Amino acid sequence: MADGSDNNSDPWLRFRKATRARIGLGRSGDGLPTRALLEFQLAHARARDAVHGAVDFDRLAADLAPLETVRVHSAAPDRATYLRRPDLGRRLNEASRAVLARGDWDIAFVVADGLSAAAVQAHAAPLVRACLERLPGWSVAPVVLAGQARVALGDEVGALLGARLVALLVGERPGLSAADSLGVYLTWAPMPGRADSQRNCISNIHGAGLPIGAAADKLCWLAREASRLKLTGVALKEDAPALQGPEGSGPRPIDRI
User: Fold this and answer.
1) What confidence tens digit (pLDDT) does each residue in 203-229 have?
2) Is the Cβ–Cβ distance between 83 and 51 less than 8 Å?
3) Hey, which residues does 146 pair with through a beta bridge?
4) What mean pLDDT comes out for the span 67-79?
5) What CATH number corresponds to the domain at position 120?
6) Which residues of 75-85 are buried (b: 16+ CB within 10 A; e: fewer)?
7) pTM given for the model
8) Is residue 14 part of a domain?
9) Mean pLDDT of 55-83
10) Is 163 inside a domain boundary?
11) How many Å separate Cα 132 from the centre of its chain?
């Protein structure tokens, strides 16, 4: 129908039921119908809020308790600088390097705010807990909470901690269908200078995407394989058993977050 309403005479109805993409929106004169326009504006506002919002790290630490947490910050002093200077978000500031004590860890979890505070606030703590339940016997470093951080920050954090693996959880760049999507980047033998091809990525973790349990299954399977093969990235084939997630919600290529 011209106005994009959902009823049995709408030929686009079955397609809209299969995707969250904006298809078959209809028109009103030369523009969109009012409902479609308002939905677009709401989605855009949520995406902007996700990018410019701030993670409540005190609340996140409380959600992770009694797990030990450590706070660090990137070299980007504020959000405006972080958005303009991606390079500064990929390395720690001087004060943060001093608080990371080296140990003998099988894996370190780093929770980075990234480009969606909403994703980190909602999904990071449940995912960390689900992973720990699936990794009995593993030595796990204190959970690192990283402000104004991008993916490569995990390399420096993991190296300073002496972790064999680092799993960085990060708020993904929001889109108009999901503003609270969490991603995970897994790197063997983390150190500054690691290439994106040396990581494995699990993406699209949110309420309408990959469920927490399925993401934890995938991540822990990859972690065990990485520990066995002593590698991650393109050489670690992601042929884990099928997961109970929505169709098409599995890993995607790495984003430069």
Assistant:
1) 999 988 899 999 999 999 999 999 999
2) yes
3) 72, 112
4) 96
5) 3.40.50.11240
6) bbeebeebeee
7) 0.81
8) no
9) 96
10) yes
11) 17
